[in-house]
Design goal:
The chain is an alpha+beta fold. The protein has five helices and 15 strands.
Length: 261
């Protein structure tokens, strides 16, 4: 599924470490991009009426193509360079903004509210459509992943209760932010602590992206419950050992029940 031309070089790793993000314009092969786009179209037809298509959580336990993409050896090689050989896949997230829809997602950090701990490598943000500010692509604050956990706005009336306190952000945030722009089939990696935000989709185009998240096999694995995007059925978060050893002896499964060999 990964383009033959894609590599994760030492220079890429250094850029990521310094800035907290790195963008690859070409990640998926042309064939894989076409197949993934078709698979997402099918998923959007399956979605429960009234459910937000921007919030399809952990679809890797239902859809083999997402599981296969998350287990691509080249991807796991990249993750291994950051956290070592014992790798757990704990979350995937399909984020689809239809044309002329969506909301402003304020500046926030991911790691503080994930209910997991230990070394967390970058999240992979894979683009299935051309991404830019017009259709609601992410923006990040370069270098701010080094500032630790930032204060949040505890305003109970806010729709998003993990937004960073505006007094913490730079006054010229719109000037210093880096806006994601990439073609379909591209990929960005960003640190779990980097502040990021996104806008509504103001265009006539879709914005479909998939996030893949990993952690070390001896990390802190908190409980969480998700809903099946197809019918709202609840299911627990699962942690899958996708490379290496179950060093904490938790009995981690190596694949979802549907895909067990």
């Amino acid at each position: 599924m990964i383009s033959d031309s894609w590599t994760y070089s030492e220079e890429d790793s250094q850029s990521y470490s310094e800035n907290g993000y790195h963008i690859f314009d070409r990640f998926l092969s042309d064939h894989a991009l076409d197949q993934c786009q078709r698979a997402i179209d099918t998923m959007l037809q399956e979605i429960q009426p009234g459910r937000d298509p921007s919030d399809i959580i952990s679809p890797h336990v239902f859809k083999r193509w997402i599981w296969d993409l998350a287990n691509e050896p080249a991807v796991l090689d990249m993750i291994e360079t950051q956290i070592g050989p014992n790798i757990v896949l704990w979350s995937t997230h399909l984020l689809c903004k239809p044309p002329n829809t969506g909301i402003d997602v304020p500046w926030h950090q991911d790691a503080p509210y994930w209910n997991v701990g230990g070394p967390l490598p970058c999240g992979l943000w894979i683009a299935f459509d051309h991404m830019d500010e017009e259709n609601g692509a992410m923006a990040v604050l370069p270098g701010w992943h080094k500032k630790g956990t930032l204060p949040i706005d505890t305003n109970d009336g806010a729709f998003f209760d993990q937004m960073i306190d505006a007094k913490t952000l730079p006054d010229n945030v719109d000037t210093v932010k880096f806006q994601y722009r990439m073609p379909a089939g591209g990929m960005a990696i960003h640190h779990t602590m980097i502040p990021h935000s996104s806008t509504p989709n103001h265009s006539a185009r879709w914005r479909r992206a998939l996030v893949l998240r990993y952690m070390t096999a001896d990390g802190e694995m908190g409980e969480q419950t998700y809903e099946d995007y197809r019918d709202g059925t609840s299911f627990p978060r699962e942690y899958f050992l996708v490379r290496g050893k179950d060093v904490a002896h938790r009995g981690l499964p190596r694949n979802p029940v549907l895909f067990a060999l």
